[in-house]
Amino acid sequence: MKKMLIIISLLFSFTLFSAEVSGIVIKVIDGDTITIQDGNDKFKVRFAHIDAPEKAQEYGKESAAALKEFIFNQHVYVEFYEIDMYGRIIGTVYLTKLFGTYFDNVNMKMVSTGNAWWYEEYSKDANYLQLQETAKLEKLGLWKADNPIPPWEFRKMNKKGK
Is 46 a known active-site residue? Predict the structure, then answer.
């Protein structure tokens, strides 16, 4: 029911600029997509501003494992502005602390640890660029490879190959 109310609010409210959900991370699908549960409601969340390697891509499994280590079975808060064509919430995920206070922007953490790219095509937040540049310089995560392939290029190459 809660999920339907959020969707209806987004579709019919002209004054709603953002929404939020929170819950426990019950599944890490890959390095930029999770499922959270709040009571009986489950929400699939795609991280805004970032793109992580695909599962079949080099460093894909490591990226997902890093995200799982950061937040699996933890309480998170998600601030979001849209639902994509696959029905996923697109948002910024925050790991919650005691007493409901929020800390640790997980989207930024994935980029700063070299576990995801800044998705410049869909994000204008240049803070992610700075985090990515630092991770590259320090050769963290996927930046250990000589020439890592961004996920959007990997997807494009695999579409052409089919």
Answer: yes
Total-model pTM:
0.86
Q: Which of 20, 54, 62, 82 is catalytic?
A: 54
CA dist 116 to 41, 92, 102, 144, Å? 28, 14, 22, 13
Q: How far is CA 67 from CA 40, 42, 110, 161, in A?
A: 24, 19, 7, 29
Active site includes 58? no
| Cα–Cα dist 121/96, whole Å | 28
Q: Which amino acid is at 152?
A: W
Residue type, 162: K
Q: What is the pLDDT of residues 107-134, one digit of tens each?
A: 999 999 999 999 999 999 999 999 999 9
Please tell me which residue in 69, 88, 138, 153 is annotated as part of the active site: 88
Segments in the chain forming alpha helices (H): 2-12, 60-71, 106-112, 127-137, 151-160
Domains of the chain, CATH where assigned: 2-160 (2.40.50.90)
pLDDT of amino acid 160? 67
